[in-house]
Design a protein that fits this description.
With about 160 residues, this protein is an alpha+beta fold. It is about 45% helix and about 10% strand. The chain has a 4-stranded antiparallel sheet. Helix 3 runs antiparallel to helix 6.
């Protein structure tokens, strides 16, 4: 038998006014979740090339990190991924020779993609040392979570940082 649903039989949740915290949360703001600030991937452009939102979350701004520094970091990460995903004659040949050698070529030769990812690791280490760790944050490589998001780990609370100074 088919069950009929009438408006009286299905419970509806009454519409409620958003809480004050929800109103204050900007649609471009990324809250802290389990000790991390999550920056989602931006699929609005080319969805094949990893690209992340450049808006600076309030959680980052509250730690006295300049918005320009944050945007520069994310923009540079986006540029690394765009460069790594660019198809050139060299990357085409790498793929062909890799396939012909049953990918044993890559045991003794780093691909263009791998070289760029290594550069990105060095860049992130440098940015973390200069900008983010002194403020109790650390940006993790997006490769660690499948390029779905950038995780900014919260290392110290703001209270701990102010006590240290």
């Amino acid at each position: 038998t088919r069950m009929e649903h009438s408006p009286e039989s299905s419970p509806r949740k009454p519409m409620t006014k958003p809480s004050k915290e929800e109103e204050e949360l900007d649609e471009n703001d990324f809250p802290e979740v389990d000790g991390a600030i999550i920056i989602p991937r931006d699929y609005s452009r080319d969805g094949n090339i990893p690209r992340f939102h450049e808006e600076c979350p309030s959680s980052v701004r509250q730690r006295d990190i300049r918005e320009e520094d944050y945007k520069k970091t994310i923009r540079t990460l986006n540029e690394f991924f765009a460069e790594a995903e660019t198809m050139t004659f060299k990357t085409f040949l790498e793929g062909c020779f890799g396939c012909l050698s049953m990918f044993s070529l890559f045991l003794c030769y780093d691909s263009q993609y791998k070289k760029i990812i290594q550069q990105m690791d060095l860049f992130l280490a440098s940015e973390n040392d200069k900008i983010y760790r002194p403020h109790g944050l650390e940006i993790l490589n997006p490769l660690f979570n499948g390029l779905l998001e950038i995780e900014i780990r919260v290392l110290e609370s703001q209270k701990e940082i102010s006590e240290r100074k």
